[in-house]
Specification:
By secondary structure, the protein is mostly helical. The chain is about 65% helix and about 5% strand. Among the domains are: about 265-415, Serine Threonine Protein Phosphatase 5, Tetratricopeptide repeat; about 415-595, no CATH class.
């Protein structure tokens, strides 16, 4: 139940209740109010009573008091305005002394300042902020907006031995020169902006403020409980606000739109708005699907999901998530065929390794999709070449593309092993592997060639590395599958992550592994052994101790793969060989023993 549904239900019930029934409710509710909120509760009652009395008697004591309060606010505003003019002219300023701080280490020094506010500039800011809050509470909304203009436009001069600079409102707060609750201040400013703006300009004006960085963390519903009166013309504002956001580009507008729709609209209205916003803000469809899923309305979720797949541009990455929400709803309805279609749609809108592995491990005939998947990959643009939004913050409209690294990984998953091995062999040195495919390709090839369902220590590490390089996360992989519907309790453990990955990888191998002949496998093993040996010797010879564990894992994994293919004792022989070649490297010996090398130390058995 969102706020609109809640308030409408409360208003309806209140209209039907007698005075005695309302008194009983108020008494019962008051008993449940926490001690910290009791004073505020009583103040609200007093405020409502005083407001009703002032409406009846224009010349009442309450009315006269309000006029006096407003006069005092105007007087204080005039004083502060003059002080801010002095700040602007540089007559009021802050002294500072800057120096380098090496507390984080010599190479991580920071330039810091010690400030001395002898002229009370910070207090002026605090007084203005406090007066702004008071102005809102006393319904002086225009004054509150004017006060924020003084605060936000002020640039405080800081004098540091001739190297002068200025501080903004946010920086004054950040440097603890003004004790101001930024969140509270931002909420009151937006409330004042809303109340002081004409209805036909309210949505546009409100949006201008909301997009200011100072208000970035404020949610619209937070300001509804502020002030001494309800926001005026809310129903009309919501309609104008949502209509404005539908036609504004950018993540900020998209987030405000999602907040407004989920906060204000019912289920049918949410879907209707998502249809209108699909081109500019497809993320609203995701919000609706998540809303329906949280309320276990799977039939409606399936219907809206199918609609979202039709409405959202197929090249939009975000459409992939809509496909997975739809797949889960289809599985709940027992519709495996639709779920398979959704997994394919998810891959074709966001062509990641995880989205492809989901297809390989879950659809009934994954091999039949290989050719189509390869066509999708080959047709995708490289990163940045067709990103029509450049550096603008508009992630929800980001299109499907591949980086050079992703293209190499997807080539391997598509079964183009020859090209993948060729790319590995292009690196001839044992060091400098960072950012090169060889670092990712070797673990993948070792797992491909492993003829065992069980993972020993070395291949366990290869699976961990492969999962990392492929961007494999259990949570994202199981989304849209039956596994996610089970809600397993051990989803967050690393062991479970690797178990799920290895199960998925073996399913993928069943699709592509048959294309590796014995002759190819033998050739790949020769190449892998040469690359791993080159890496091992380079790391140990240069005494890169932090990497001893990684090369020990590579050697162990290679031995495990060879043993799985019939070479008895291959792992122990390989690890012992490196021990004999580097007899004085005791730290290396410890790493080799951790991966299964027999303990050859004296007195050990």
């Amino acid at each position: 139940m969102n706020l609109r549904e809640f308030t409408e239900a409360v208003d309806k019930l209140a209209e039907e209740m007698t005075q005695e029934e309302l008194r009983v409710f108020l008494h019962s509710f008051a008993r449940k109010v926490s001690e910290q909120q009791r004073r505020e509760f009583v103040e609200i009652l007093e405020m409502v009573k005083a407001y009703q009395n002032s409406e009846k008697e224009e010349g009442s004591f309450v009315s006269k008091t309000e006029k006096q309060d407003k006069a005092e606010i105007e007087k204080e505003y005039t004083r502060l305005k003059e002080l801010f003019e002095e700040i602007e002219e540089g007559e009021l300023y802050i002294d500072a002394e800057g120096y380098e701080d090496y507390s984080s280490g010599y190479w991580d020094s920071d330039w810091v300042y010690e400030y001395e506010d002898t002229q009370g500039v910070g207090q002026i800011f605090e007084d203005a902020a406090n007066l702004l809050l008071q102005s809102v509470n006393d319904k002086c909304y225009e004054t509150a907006v004017d006060l924020f203009a003084l605060l936000s436009e002020a640039e405080v001069l800081v004098v540091d031995q001739g190297d002068n600079f200025t501080l903004s409102l946010g920086e004054m707060i950040e440097e603890h020169l003004a004790s101001i609750n930024q969140e509270e201040l931002a909420q009151h400013v937006l409330y004042a902006v809303y109340q002081s703006t004409e209805p036909d300009k309210r949505a546009e004006h409100f949006y201008e403020y909301c997009t200011h960085p100072f208000f970035r963390e404020v949610r619209l519903e937070q300001i509804l409980s502020l002030g001494s009166e309800e926001l005026k013309g809310l129903p009309e504002f919501w309609d104008a606000w949502i209509d404005l956001l539908i036609h504004r580009e950018g993540d900020t507008a998209g987030e405000f739109l999602r907040q407004a729709v989920l906060f204000q609209k019912d289920e049918d209205e949410m879907t209707e708005t998502a249809q209108k916003a699909a081109k500019m803000h497809p993320s609203l469809y995701l919000a609706v699907l998540e809303y329906l899923e949280s309320r276990q309305k799977s039939e409606r979720q399936l219907q809206v999901g199918k609609e979202a797949l039709e409405k959202i541009d197929k090249s939009c990455r975000l459409r992939s998530q809509a496909a997975l929400y739809t797949a889960e709803a289809a599985l709940k309805a027992g519709d495996k065929k639709t779920a398979e279609m959704c997994w394919i749609e998810a891959f074709e809108s966001h062509s990641t390794p995880v989205n492809y592995l989901r297809i390989a491990a879950n659809i009934e005939e994954p091999a039949s999709y290989r050719e189509r998947a390869a066509q999708v990959i080959n047709a995708l643009p490289y990163a940045g070449k067709t990103d029509r939004y450049g550096y603008e913050l508009n992630h929800e409209l980001q299109i499907n593309f591949l980086s050079e690294n992703d293209r190499s990984l997807m080539g391997f998953l598509m079964g183009d092993f020859e090209s993948s091995m060729k790319e590995c062999l292009e690196t001839r040195e044992g060091l400098g592997w960072s950012g090169k495919f060889i670092k990712k390709g070797i673990p993948l090839f070792l797992l491909l060639l492993l003829q065992s369902e069980q993972l020993l220590q070395g291949c366990q590490e290869m699976a961990r590395s492969a999962a990392f390089y492929l961007g494999f996360k259990r949570e994202s992989y199981v989304k849209g599958t039956k596994e996610n519907l089970k809600g397993a309790s051990d989803t967050g453990t690393e062991e479970n992550e690797i178990t799920v990955f290895w199960s998925c990888f073996r399913s993928w191998k069943a699709v592509h592994g048959l294309s590796v002949t014995e002759e190819q496998a033998a050739n790949y093993l020769v190449s892998l052994e040469e690359m791993i040996d080159r890496r091992f010797r380079a790391i140990v010879s240069k005494q890169h101790r932090n990497h001893y564990g990684s090369v020990a894992a590579l050697a162990a994994a290679l031995g495990e793969v060879k043993a799985s293919r019939g070479e008895h004792g291959a792992k122990e022989k390989l690890l012992l060989k490196y021990r004999e070649e580097f007899p004085r490297h005791t730290a290396l010996h410890g790493e080799l023993r951790s991966y299964g090398m027999p303990d050859m130390r004296k007195g050990r058995r």
